[in-house]
Amino acid sequence: MTTIVVVGASLAGTQAAQAMRRAGFDGRLVMVGAEPHYPYDRPPLSKSYLVDAEVDEERLRLRPTVDPDVLAADWRLGRRAVALDDQRSVVELDDGEQLGYDGLVIATGARPRRLPMADPPTDGVFELRTLDDARALRAALAAGPTRVAVCGAGFIGAEVAASARERGLEVTLVDAADAPLDRVLDTEAGLAVADLHRDHGVDVRLGVGVADIDRSGPRVDGMVLSDGSIVAAEVVVVGIGVVPNTEWLSSSTLTIDDGIVADETCLAAPGIVVAGDVARWPNPRFGGRSMRVEQWDNAIDMGGYAGRRLLAALDGGRVEPFEPTPWFWSDQYDRKIQLAGVVGERREVVQGSVAERRFVQIYGDGTGRLTGALCWNRPRQAIMARQLVTDGETMDAARTKLA
Ligand SMILES: Cc1cc2nc3c(=O)[nH]c(=O)nc-3n(C[C@H](O)[C@H](O)[C@H](O)COP(=O)(O)OP(=O)(O)OC[C@H]3O[C@@H](n4cnc5c(N)ncnc54)[C@H](O)[C@@H]3O)c2cc1C
Predict the structure, then answer these.
(1) Domains 3-111+243-315 and 334-402 share a fold
(2) Mutate to test the pocket of ligand 1, among 45, 63, 108, 240 (most ligand atoms within 8 A of CB)
(3) Is the CB of 32 under 6 A from ligand 1?
(4) Any idea what DSSP says for residue 383?
(5) Is the CB of 12 inside a 6 Å radius of any atom of ligand 1?
(6) 221, 125 in Cβ contact below 8 A?
(7) Rounded Cα distance, 83 and 395, in Å
(8) What distance in angstroms lies between residue 120's CA and the mean position of ligand 1's atoms?
(9) 3-state class (DSSP) for residue 187
(10) What is the reported pTM?
């Protein structure tokens, strides 16, 4: 019987498994997940789950595994893959079990990057990636602190800041960059995020790093910033980006370069596909640009694609390349921020205004081709924009259609 092992039992891994079952794969499917939980959805963890005690964990369960029997898989939860021998096609788990495979899906995602002085984060310092992280942070926010300090104004930090404000807490949001979200947005759009937080009473400090965690006793007192100032807080949250989980592959022949490097069909080696936050591949839609996308939609699309790709590889079949238009959203206060595609060197607001915090801004490359669109509280235009990028439209066409 053919055996397929999926390492990483979260969004991308379960999508791959589901796609393979749907395509008729009736062999043995083994799902290995380091967390003890059945797969669940992460986006609510920084949003409703932190604010609303009524959001119960059952509702976070990912669809295909609400009933885990649906996948007819052999689950290995709370078990970590520690090595891959891709020459012998064997995955080794932390309890010594050797799992032989005919096909392998790697979807081990990413983990929070840590501050050297808070590694691991303890006693009032928190990070947020897993359900267990969110449980701990939610309990700390519910325990009645007055002040929360957030290090890092990326999406996780910004959403945690918004959630803490919604709980009525005093919040300071600190980032070493000149604008929030500087890895994904242009500076002006990032500054609009800063203003959004200021509107809601957050003390936003930009262009200043965190030099240390301030502790006089066992518990945290706040953060010491690189300009010498101190931000007092009973709860400190660190959200400074993520690191792909690839260390367990060091003994394999796979290429690792800030993620596992795959070809344009997500194949990393014969019989091995990769998907989700851990995967890097050249996206033909953007001229073969090497991408590693840390977004929910991508994990869904790439997981499903990778599952079908693996079956094709096992059957000797061919597939089209994986060439999605990336897409993400972030909810902060009453704003839905959506980016379809990617930021480009040209940009133009074609509807609304940044000052109103309700707008559509399109991006293009040097030739005037549309690369993406940023939409604030404009969900319909965001969907249209994604299609326009996928269709290879120009900025001129997008200006007319999205205005
Ligand atoms: C709090 C939060 C909010 C988010 N909000 C948004 C949002 O609003 N919009 C958006 O687009 N995206 C959002 N995201 C991002 C989105 O959730 C991720 O892109 C998505 O979870 C990636 O899925 P994945 O399956 O690739 O990886 P992950 O979800 O990281 O799962 C990887 C799994 O592999 C396991 N694993 C790792 N190493 C091993 C190993 N050696 N052996 C076995 N198992 C292993 C991990 O424990 C984990 O369970 C958010 C993420 C977080 C954390």
Answers:
(1) no
(2) 108
(3) yes
(4) H
(5) yes
(6) no
(7) 47
(8) 19
(9) helix
(10) 0.96
Question: What residues form DSSP beta bridges with 224?
Answer: 212, 230
Atom number, ligand 1, closest to the C-alpha of residue 15: 25
**Is the shortest distance between the CB of 295 and ligand 1 below 6 Å?**
yes
pLDDT tens column, 113-131: 999 999 999 999 999 999 9
- Choose which residue among 65, 76, 296, 329 to substitute to test ligand 1 binding: the one with the highest number of ligand atoms within 8 A of its C-beta: 296
pLDDT tens for the chain, 403 residues long, are 999 999 999 999 999 999 999 999 999 999 999 999 999 999 999 999 999 888 888 889 997 776 778 899 999 999 999 999 999 999 999 999 999 999 999 999 999 999 999 999 999 999 999 999 999 999 999 999 999 999 999 999 999 999 999 999 999 999 999 999 988 899 999 999 999 999 999 999 999 999 999 998 888 999 999 999 999 999 999 999 999 999 999 999 999 999 999 999 999 999 999 999 999 999 999 999 999 999 999 999 999 999 999 999 999 888 999 999 999 999 999 999 999 999 999 999 999 999 999 999 999 999 999 999 999 999 999 999 999 999 999 999 999 999 8
CA distances from 211 to 65, 67, 223, 230 (A): 42, 46, 8, 10
Fold of 3-111+243-315: FAD/NAD(P)-binding domain (3.50.50)
How far apart, in Å, are the Cα atoms of 317 and each of 8, 148, 308, 314, 402? 25, 54, 10, 8, 40
Question: Which of ligand 1's atoms lies nearest the C-alpha of 297?
Answer: 11
Pairing of strands 147-151, 170-175: parallel
Rounded to a whole number of angstroms, the distance between the first and last alpha carbons of the chain is 56
Ligand 1, atom 4, residue with closest C-alpha: 43
SS (H, E, C) 251-301: CCCCCECCCEECCCCCEEECCEEECHHHEEEEEHHHCCEEECCCCHHHHHH
CATH 3.30.390.30 fits 334-402, yes or no: yes
CATH of domain 114-240: 3.50.50.60
Cα dihedral 393, 327, 187, 351 sign: positive
